[in-house]
Amino acid sequence: MTGLNALKGRSLIEPEDFSVDEMELLFSLAENIEKDEKYLRESCRGKILAALFFEPSTRTRLSFEAAMLRLGGNCIGFAEPGSSSSSKGESLADTIRTAACYADTIVMRNPKEGSALLAKNYSLVPVINAGDGGHHHPTQTLTDLLTIKRLLGKIDTITIGFCGDLKFGRTVHSLVKALVRYNQIKMIFISPKELVLPEYIKNNLIKQNIDFIESENLENSMNDIDVLYMTRVQKERFFNEDDYIRLKDTYVLNTEKMSMAKEKMIVLHPLPRVNEISIEVDSDPRAAYFQQAKYGMYVRMALLASIQGVVTC
Ligand code: NCD
Predict the structure, then answer these.
(1) pLDDT of the chain along its 313 residues, tens only?
(2) Could you tell me the domains of the chain?
(3) Which residue out of 14, 64, 112, 171 has the highest number of ligand 1 atoms within 8 Å of its CB and is therefore the one to mutate?
(4) Apex CA 117: angle with CA 114 and CA 120, to 5°?
(5) How far is 130 from 142, CA to CA, in rounded Å?
(6) C-alpha to C-alpha distance for 198 and 226, rounded to whole angstroms
(7) How many angstroms is it from 2 CA to the middle of ligand 1?
(8) Which residue's CA is the nearest one to ligand 1's atom 11?
(9) Predicted model pTM
């Protein structure tokens, strides 16, 4: 088993960049931080995180910034491309090379698939992918896995239902890729036929003998699911507004549907939600999406501290 010191200086572009053992060590570290919020405080004093967000974000950007500030470090960056020189025509490669002169780690969100890998190739400091188009979002995956582990006590042997926009949802793509490395995972993909999981992901699941089914109906699967992973229909990735309007409210999780679920099931959502979870569900003890947002900060603290090389275990 490798130690967390092996993460020093590493980038995180997609979930497979870290081994399962390395992710488990991050989860243990995040659990220690959760137990004692002063743990690792000041460990990143003098370190700078550059948060470069070319797309909107609430949780990812704020939790990264809060994580770095709680570790005693500082943050620079921008929350929209209009305030950076990319609006003057600067290339991503040049923006990254510049940010790497000022910061010790870069976290970037960008609408283009593959942009995070490009950034890594031009950066002299580690790059963390905070979402590259409809491709990957590996720190949301760390958040999701930690939440499942903390609330269900295990990741192996769960049945997980993914519901909503499985075509464009990068959080789904990353979580699926990470889960196949655990044991006896069953996946149920619930979406309208226009928003099914991309073929290349399904082919990988088939190749790896993963137990999965596709369905258009949420109610029918409710009773089998341990983790229900709801997602927003990704308006910004549609080519056609009419299609978005037609599909956006296909699934709405409400108390009636929750009554069909297991007593110990949990509902996750990367957020933001639009209409897909009715607010009456928020008070159900199985609704875990705001706890999930908090775990996102703990696991990002663990990640930043490990990448900076300030944890040696
Ligand atoms: C997600 C994203 O940006 O991919 N949000 C997040 O990071 N928590 C999900 C979404 O925008 O629907």
Answers:
(1) 468 899 999 999 999 999 999 999 999 999 999 999 889 999 999 999 999 999 999 999 999 999 999 999 999 999 999 999 999 999 999 999 999 999 999 999 999 999 999 999 999 999 999 999 999 999 999 999 999 999 999 999 999 999 999 999 999 999 999 999 999 999 999 999 999 999 999 999 999 999 999 999 999 999 999 999 999 999 999 989 999 999 999 999 999 999 999 999 999 999 999 999 999 999 999 999 999 999 999 999 999 999 999 986 6
(2) 3-136+296-307 (3.40.50.1370), 138-293 (3.40.50.1370)
(3) 171
(4) 150
(5) 12
(6) 23
(7) 30
(8) 272
(9) 0.97
